[in-house]
Amino acid sequence: MTVVRVAALIPAFNEAATIAAVVHGLRSFLAQVIVVDDGSTDGTAERAREAGADVLVHDRNLGKGHAVRTGLARVLAGNFTHVLLLDGDMQHLPAEATRLIHAAETSEADVVLGERVFKRSEIARLSLSREPHRKSGAFVVCRRPLNDTQCGFRIFRTDAVRPLALTATGYEIETEMLGQGAAARRTRGERTGDRCLHGPAQQAAAGARHDTHMFSGGVLSLH
């Protein structure tokens, strides 16, 4: 079993109502929780700091991609083996992170992905352009069919993230991280997407703003 040292990274914009609960949930099993306040105007930074997070603040809203990149720079400057990414609005249950961490400990995966499972009625509400991209994007970047490349609930090995030259400013950061990692492996003649494992779905937090209700765990090796 791999010994892991995990830092949690939460990009947040106007999440004062939920950020403390997310931080408290993570702090019960992680010593380092980093919140990047992306120009919030509702006191998100203060709530996160009071809950015990290490808080970085953007003076104005720059987008999720910028927030993730700011947080990654802090994580990579530390002595961590893995970085856990999740959102601050409680659509990702903090307790579910232990399942992703366990998968990282017991595998050689570069990234463990959460996968959103939508109810039939919710899929119908997704735009025609968004749903095919959510499902097909993983095949393009990883050469294997993964159902959800844009779920923000994931854990990366820091050594897999360190060489990436990320430029995304918005939600496309989710796919960019997977794509660049897989491309780097292919450039070195290594195989990508060798393994994908799925665990049982779990109920997401009630009251989350997004239409996501279920998660299943996935393991993706970029080796």
Features:
single chain; 223 residues; alpha/beta; Spore Coat Polysaccharide Biosynthesis Protein SpsA, Chain A; nine-stranded mixed β-sheet; 9 strands; 34% helix; 21% strand; globular
How would you portray this structure in words?
- The chain is α/β, with parallel strands linked by helices.
- The protein has a single domain (6-220), classed as Spore Coat Polysaccharide Biosynthesis Protein SpsA, Chain A, CATH 3.90.550.10.
- Helices cover 34% and strands 21% of the residues.
- The protein has helices at residues 19-27, 44-50, 64-76, 97-105, 120-125, 130-142, 158-161, 173-187, and strands spanning 6-12, 32-38, 54-58, 82-85, 111-117, 154-157, 196-198, 202-203, 214-220.
- Strands 1, 2, 3, 4, 5, 6, 7, 8 and 9 form a nine-stranded mixed beta sheet that branches.
- Helix 6 (130-142) packs parallel to helix 8 (173-187).
- The two termini are 18 Å apart.
- Residues 125-145, 192-203 and 205-218 have low confidence and may be disordered.
Lay out the secondary structure.
Blueprint lengths: L5 E7 L6 H9 L4 E7 L5 H7 L3 E5 L5 H13 L5 E4 L11 H9 L5 E7 L2 H6 L4 H13 L11 E4 H4 L11 H15 L8 E3 L3 E2 L10 E7 L3
